[in-house]
Write a structure and sequence with these properties.
12 strands; seven-stranded mixed β-sheet; 253 residues; 22% strand; 8 helices; Purple Acid Phosphatase, chain A, domain 2; five-stranded mixed β-sheet; alpha/beta
Length: 253
């Protein structure tokens, strides 16, 4: 089984180079894999399946084609695109994953998650996260007029940027105690997540043999993680790109 992982692209119309890079990745890399995992914040904002950003139409088409060609595409919600629903998933040929997904691999069982639930020291964010993940809150939000939803999302995004900039790094990073609790509860030695925008391979997580891989966010560089029977490798490439990805190996397990 060959798997490809990406997260934290934050696609939006003001960063067309991100869309271009993803399209190249889907065309030049993803077709060689059995599964593509989208581990959250693929979209910078998602205010409902009825309001999919039109500027990202090439991405929707590329995902449908990839799925139709035989690569299974799996989507996990992030803190920016948690309203990506079943209607959009069906339309794009994508399978929705739970907040914490377990997969078997040559490296043993692996836990996949976006990663924001690990930032437990940020109590204000965790309270907000619990609120917006409730089905009743989501139903009420999606019932609002589109213009109102967009305005609320813009206001929340601006507030998040401002508050995050003022918080110490330790608060916005994954909590060691949350990591240990999750790995020991699920009896796994490998976690893959994004969210923190701090790509790294951490050892001795939860146990002497525990490993936590943090996926890189797309900004000045694009990142992807490959997993196959030979190992796990994370690559980066410079943005913007022209016609071909020139990737550099950054981390290897």
């Amino acid at each position: 089984m060959r798997r490809l992982f990406i997260a934290d692209l934050h696609l939006h119309e003001q960063r067309p180079e991100l869309t271009r890079a993803l399209l190249l990745l889907l065309e030049q890399k993803a077709t060689r894999f059995d599964e593509l995992y989208l581990l959250g914040d693929i979209f910078d904002t998602w205010v409902g399946d009825d309001a999919a950003p039109e500027s990202l139409a090439p991405v929707y088409l590329a995902l449908r084609r990839l799925s139709a060609a035989g690569t299974r595409v799996l989507f996990q919600h992030g803190n920016r695109d948690f309203l990506f629903g079943q209607e959009a998933a069906t339309r794009l040929g994508v399978t929705l994953l739970p907040e914490v997904a377990r997969v078997e691999s040559a490296q043993g069982p692996v836990l996949l998650l976006h990663g924001d639930q690990l930032c437990t020291a940020d109590r204000a964010y965790q309270q907000f996260r619990r609120q917006v993940r409730r089905p009743e809150w989501q139903r009420a939000f999606l019932a609002r007029p589109l213009a109102e939803r967009v305005a609320i999302a813009q206001r929340l995004r601006a507030t998040s940027r401002s508050e995050t900039a003022e918080k110490p790094e330790a608060i916005t990073d994954a909590s060691p105690s949350a990591i240990t609790t999750l790995m020991q509860r699920e009896q796994v030695a490998l976690i893959i997540h994004g969210h923190t925008h701090r790509p790294a391979l951490h050892r001795r997580q939860g146990s002497p043999l525990g490993v936590r891989i943090v996926l890189g966010n797309w900004d000045r560089e694009g990142w992807y993680l490959e997993m196959d029977p030979q190992g796990v490798r994370q690559y980066a490439f410079e943005l913007p790109v022209a016609n071909r990805l020139h990737s550099v190996l950054r981390q290897q397990l």
